[in-house]
Each structure stands twice: as structure tokens, then as C-alpha cells.
Amino acid sequence: TALLGAASVAAGRQPRGPRRDGTVRWSSAAKASAVNINEKASREKILTLESMNPQVKAVEYAVRGPIVLKAGEIEKELRKGIKKPFTEVIKANIGDAHAMGQRPITFLRQVVALCTYPNLLDSPSFPEDAKKRARRILQGCGGNSLGSYTASQGINCIREDVASYIERRDGGVPADPDNIYLTTGASDGISAILKILISGGGKSRTGVMIPIPQYPLYSAAISELDAIQVNYYLDEENCWALNVNELRRALNEAKAYCNPKVLCIINPGNPTGQVQNRKCIEDVIHFAWEEKLFLLADEVYQDSVYSEGCQFHSFKKILCEMGPEYYNSVELASFHSTSEGYMGKCGYRGGYMEVINLHPEIKGQLVKLLSVRLCPPVSGQAAMDIVVNPPVPGEESYAQFIKEKESVLNNLAKKAKLTEDMLNKIPGLHCNPLQGAMYAFPRIFIPSKAIEEAKAHKMAPDMFYCMKLLEETGICVVPGSGFGQREGTHHFRITILLPVEKLKILLEKVKDFHIKFLEKYA
């Protein structure tokens, strides 16, 4: 009404007078004038798809892309009572552990609760080892409050705890708290390092080598920063192994159009679930040293390793054990977070990165960049502290903590095997062993008739498949094209986080759907 009045007065038209309810009545001419002004204003938007930042427009993030938006629309329709062949949407598209029913770790919740509401420190309901950690964290906060800003690098005592954790994990390899940066999940650290690394123009523009399939954070960040994406393909026929010959092929081809200087590794793999062995990591480090590449090691699933004979090896540990020629020269950033594994604290947005062999002047530039966002969420920093500083033998919370942690990890291992076995019984699907992480990435056979129909709908074949799966069963998974895949192959990513019985039902529905899909399109 205010806009209408202003427009009409500006046009020289006066209101007719108030209604009984006190609102003003306007003539038809006044209303038409206001509409014309509104239309003119809408035609003069400063920010449009044509004028917006083209790098942002180029960003794609399949994990929350079109298929998830469609799932949201279907959920709204179900709430309105619109009939579907199913009663609920099962979101198997994202690794959101607690949303899927994974039980929280009590000790972590207790410490964060104590930090958030310190009056609870006087309560007998909380164990002393939790109170001890909460007091230490609060002493590192301004005003002893979780609500205060912290140093841009994070609370000092938590960075000290992260360094101690890394030393324990890596069998005594030294870690310096000054090389630790607390982050808003691992994603924040990865983006920050890429911002520092990317420079140049034309053929000297920075190239970033990423695995295909990859977690879409990498392609999204590369697009946003207008860097050059350099794909290297994991070997699906060999359980998604990383082959140095493939790295060399990708690097040599990329040198014709960019300056490749960053190599990203995801271990354990997302979406592929493989765990790199020691020899593979040594080969990658040697390759990075030889070709003068900055290494990014995404290790957020380091606690989630299931297959017999598989073991997580950190790049930092292997780098140190390869000798000073490598350890003193290869630049490496490693990432971890509270979101994955037995913790599942996605919403806290806690994480850290350790960066070694960084030029002293660049360290200052990195801190400056991080200071722009002031500090990571302080509750997330507190959660990260409990991940790296859990109860130890002799403390009263130790038995419960170990019981809960092992229960979650054993359950994930059981579901990984169940998913692999059930998917491999479906004709036209093949799933590699799920050695770690929390996803399956099966290859799906899509008949040529379905591929042609997908083209008619201007969809990638696996997007078409996944959309049909969603519309007919209510199951939401992410098409493999959102992660990248070899030409002519098709996949989808599905999380294994659902409760066992619900996961069985989901996999049976996938089986029934796939068989009908083949019958229809074969």
C-alpha cells in the first residue's frame, strides 16, 4: 500500500478516501500507474543472470542439485495429501549421519553442552572428565564464553590438542600447533587453500588436478575461482585405484593449456569408497615432489575404514617416513572434520587443516585471508577438540565412549558389506568393494532406448535414471554425472547411513525399480 501510495502521489493522483477498516481506497487509474512503475522497476534490476558473476553461475553442486530440489517438491506434495506410489521420500543423497538416525556420541554432546551453558559445570549429572575439557576450552575463549570471537586460526589450546592427536595418529611424527588452522568444516579449509594457490591468466592459469569421480566441492570451488580443472581418472576396474601413470597423462596434457600446480587426493574416497595403500601414497608423493605440485589430502573419512587388509595411512606420516628430501620440501595441506565417521556432527561445522612446508610469508597471507571471516564457529571448534581429545583409559567416560564409537563403526562396516552384496545381486549393476567412507557408487547399465529418451529430455542418462527412481519409489540418490565419470559409463551415489532394516528395504526397492527399468527400455 505504501508503494502504491507513493507511486500514485508521484503521478499526481490522490486517494479517494479511507475505507471503514482504515485502509485507503485508490482509483483504477492510480493502481494502473503503480503497476506500470513496478513493471518498469522490475525491468531495471541491477543483478540479473546476464550481469551476475559468471564464475558463480558456473558453480554446480550435485549433492544438493536438481534431483534434491525435485525430492523437496515431492515431499510438499505428500504433505498436501497428493497420492504417490510411496509414502515418504528417502534421502540417500547426502552423508548426514544424525539425520539418518546415527546415534550421537554422548561425551561430545556433554562437553559442547557444558561449554554452551557453563552453569551445568556445577551439575552432578555430568562426568568430571567432560567438565575438565569444557573448562579448558572456555579458558581459551574471551570472557570464558563460547559466544566470543576467537583468533582467526582458532582457539590455541584446541590447536595444541589437534597437534597432539596428529602425533599420536602418525606414530610420533611431530606436529606444530602453528601449522594447524581450525576451519568451518573441511570445506572451508580446502576453499581457503585454493584461493591462495590460484593465480595467472591464459596458459599460465593455475590447473588443479582432481580425481574423477570427485566430491563436487572441488569442481565447484575451481569454477568459482575461475581456475582450470584437470581431471585424472580413478581405475574402476581395479577398485578405484589411483594410478601414477594416469596422473602423468593428465598432467602432461594439461600443460598445453594451463599451469598445473595443485594435486588433490581424497582418501578414503568420496564417492568411491576406496582406501589408498601405502605404496600408492608413496608413489603420489614422489610424483608431487618430482613435478613440483602442492598436495591437498582430503582425509575426512580417516576413521571409516572397513575392509580387511585396508588401513588408513595419512599423507603426512608417509611423507615423513620417505625421508628429509621429501619431508622438508613437499608442500602439503591435510584436512579433517567433525562431520564424518563415528562423529557425524555435520551441523557443527567443525574441522581443521594442517599445512606444512608453507613459505613463511604465505603463512601470513593465509592468516590474513582467514581473518576476513573472523573465526570458525566456536561450538564447532569445541566439537573438533573432543574428536582429537577423547576420553582415555582411566577416565570415567572412557568405557561408554569406546562402546558408542565401536558400535557406530561396526554398524557402518556391516552396512557397507550389506550394500555391496545386495547391489551386486541386481542384474545390470556392479558395485566395487566399499573399503571405507560412507557411500556406494555402483555402475549402472542404461539401455540405449533410455539414453535416447534422456537426450530428448535434455538430461544426462544417469540423471534421467535417478529422476525416474525418485518419482517411482521416493528414493533420492545422486547421479554419477554430478561427480564425474568416464565417458560412456553411468553411476549413482547412495549413502549407507540409513538404519539396517530401512537400508534393506531401500536396496530391495532399487532392485525392483532397476529390473522394471530394464524391462521397459531394453
TrEMBL record:
It comes from Tyrannus savana. Catalyzes the reversible transamination between alanine and 2-oxoglutarate to form pyruvate and glutamate. It comes from the Eukaryota. Belongs to the class-I pyridoxal-phosphate-dependent aminotransferase family. Alanine aminotransferase subfamily. The keyword Lipoprotein does not apply. GO terms for biological process: L-alanine catabolic process. It catalyses: L-alanine + 2-oxoglutarate = pyruvate + L-glutamate. Homodimer. One of its GO terms (cellular component) is cytoplasm. InterPro entries: ALAT1/2-like, Aminotransferase_I/II_large, PyrdxlP-dep_Trfase, PyrdxlP-dep_Trfase_major, PyrdxlP-dep_Trfase_small. Residues 110-509 form the Aminotransferase class I/classII large domain. Pathway: Amino-acid degradation; L-alanine degradation via transaminase pathway; pyruvate from L-alanine: step 1/1. SUPFAM superfamilies: PLP-dependent transferases (SSF53383). Its cofactor is pyridoxal 5'-phosphate. Pfam families: Aminotran_1_2. This is alanine transaminase. GO terms for molecular function: L-alanine:2-oxoglutarate aminotransferase activity; pyridoxal phosphate binding. Residues 1-25 are annotated as: Disordered. Its EC number is 2.6.1.2. The gene is Gpt2. PANTHER family: ALANINE AMINOTRANSFERASE, ALANINE AMINOTRANSFERASE 2. Keywords: Aminotransferase, Pyridoxal phosphate, Transferase.
